[in-house]
Write a structure and sequence with these properties.
This protein is of the alpha+beta class. The chain has three domains: 109 residues, Cytochrome Bc1 Complex, Chain D, domain 2, CATH 1.10.760; 78 residues, Cytochrome Bc1 Complex, Chain D, domain 2 (Orthogonal Bundle), CATH 1.10.760.10; 47 residues, SH3 type barrels (Roll), CATH 2.30.30.100. It is built from eight helices and seven strands, in the order ααααααββαβββββα. Strands 6-5-4-3-7 form a five-stranded antiparallel sheet. The chain has a two-stranded antiparallel ribbon with strand order 1-2. A hairpin with a 2-residue loop joins strand 1 and strand 2. Helix 2 crosses helix 5, helix 4 crosses helix 5 and helix 6 packs across helix 8. 39% of the residues are buried.
């Protein structure tokens, strides 16, 4: 597969976007059929095979936070199939491990997931929507409207606390797919964007004009991983506490029914404005 073909699919990788819905692998049983022995085996397998990217506690290092899957509406079957099939064009590989091992990992992951909780808000959602489109819609989308440089907010995943930090301190952390980079070509041209994929020979980015681009590393003089997000910080001087509460109230309307945490929304470095971290679920 050539580099151009690869980058056209770079944004399709969502942890639960399972390719091949008709796969025949038997999925785990229901949530009530928890086998302590399977959980124990799964914990060991997770630490051995998954913790490098997803962290020993499942909260993510360079991979997604796995402690919010079931509250967001995931099922054992969907998680099982994602582990089995992987996520194309991401660091998430497919697995040829025996079904029982994958079921053990799923059983262990389920123990890390608490119940969904509703978010309470104090703001005015109508005013928050106005502020969002005035300040954030250039880079963030809701239900097909808006930009794509930052995370999609069609289904908000993060807590109000996490969103607040992402809005106030976008440089605090970067999630996979939103690391700010500057590429310097052999002739000195500087290209800024967010890193979408990288291997030993190439790197794929979305530039600030929202174009997916791929480069052979041999054509670059330097790859600079920037310490700052492309998203500006929205401090109190730029977004008052009242307006922040209004934005949070609007984002809260984008959660799935029942107070669960859905797909989309800001990640560890996401939020209104420029690009931040993704909300994968």
């Amino acid at each position: 597969m050539n580099t151009i073909t690869r980058i056209t699919c770079v944004l399709t990788g969502m942890l639960l976007a399972v390719a091949g819905a008709g796969a025949q692998d038997r999925a785990p049983a229901t949530a009530g059929d928890v086998d302590p022995a399977a959980v124990s085996r799964g914990a060991g397998l997770f630490r051995e095979r998954c913790a490098e990217c997803h962290g020993p506690d499942g909260k993510g290092v360079v991979g997604h936070d796995l402690t919010r899957l079931w509250p967001a509406g995931a099922t054992d079957a969907r998680v099982f199939q994602t582990i089995r099939l992987g996520v194309p064009n991401t660091l998430m590989p497919s697995s040829t491990a025996p079904d029982e091992e994958l079921r053990g990992i799923v059983a262990y992951l389920r123990t890390l997931n608490g119940p969904a909780t509703a978010e309470s808000t104090r703001g005015n959602a109508e005013n928050g929507e106005r502020i969002f489109w005035a300040s954030c819609g250039t880079c963030h989308a809701v239900k097909g409207r808006g930009g794509v440089l930052g995370p999609d907010f069609s289904r908000v995943a993060q807590s109000s606390e996490a969103l607040t930090r992402a809005i106030r301190e976008p440089d605090a952390a970067f999630a996979t797919g939103y690391q700010s980079v500057t590429l310097v070509t052999r002739d000195g041209q500087r290209i800024q964007g967010t890193r979408k994929g990288e291997d030993a020979l190439s790197i794929q980015i979305m530039d600030t004009n929202e174009r997916l681009r791929g480069f052979l590393k041999s054509s670059l003089r330097e790859i600079i991983k920037e310490p700052a997000s492309l998203m500006p910080a929205f401090g109190p001087d730029r977004l008052t506490e009242s307006d922040l509460n209004d934005v949070l109230a609007f984002l809260n309307t984008l959660r799935p029914p029942g107070g669960g945490r859905g797909r989309g929304g800001a990640g560890r470095a996401g939020g209104p404005g420029r690009a931040g971290g993704p909300g994968p679920f």
